[in-house]
Task: structure prediction
Amino acid sequence: MKKIFLSVVPVFCMCFSLIAQLTEPININKFKSGIQQWSLDYPENDYERYDVSEVIEIANNLVKWQNRDGGWSKNIDWLGMFDIDSLRPTLEPHYHKSSLENTNIFPQIAYLSEAFTQTKNPIYRNAAERGIRYLIVHQHANGGWGEHAITFNDEVMTGIMNLFLEIRYHRPIYSWVKEPLLSLVNKSLDKAIAITLKCQAENNGEKTAWYQQYDYKTLQPQKTGDYEEISLSTVETCDILLFLMRIRNPSPEEKTAIKSGVEWLKKSQIAGTRPDAVQSIYLEWEKIHGS
Result:
């Protein structure tokens, strides 16, 4: 029995090494904001980090950092070479709970799904599924997501909606999502789109743009900080419009929201300027309408 075990170990190691060599780097751009905040919270930390090409190691980190509820805490360096079990008890309280803030949770699901597609390791698929179920469970009854309000900044709403749209349209890295989970995702997405359309502001009866956050009950715009005024947001409006433009066979309501939002951007644009976010909208609009 011992001889058989010894003969299997080298084969296992060879297979693991081969899988690692065959993996392709996965985009980590959505992790950058959280990683930057980690470095601000713990500037004295000196540690080694995985290279973006070390997909298996990064995916393993995501699995280890995942909370019991299926979500992830915000503002962590997912590429850090940590003894996570020893590090976790030493962290500030907010590092012990899952959060949708600061571009979080949907990027981990995307990364793990792509890691599963490349390696076929079911641990990554299971962790991604737990993340999806976390999002479904933590969606407000009216369709919104956010810690204390329906939140469009930090890509809270649009990040999740884009993820669920890719699942709906069977992007290859999400081919593992089957029924009944797929139906739950689609139902959740429909609710999110509906509340997004309701949140679009109006001026003299005409729809315009979106604010960053809305009260869950009243749908009135909310402040995002003590020193910030409530105002329509170009960045969040662009994110929402780009999402809506990805919907195949949009409804009349969705078409109206898109057209109204684009018109608001045109009217609000400072002469001679075209920021990157607005430029993306115009390019997408021209692609659809040819002008």
Summary: The chain has two domains: 1-138, 177-291. The first strand starts at residue 150 and ends at 151. Residues 177-291 form one domain.
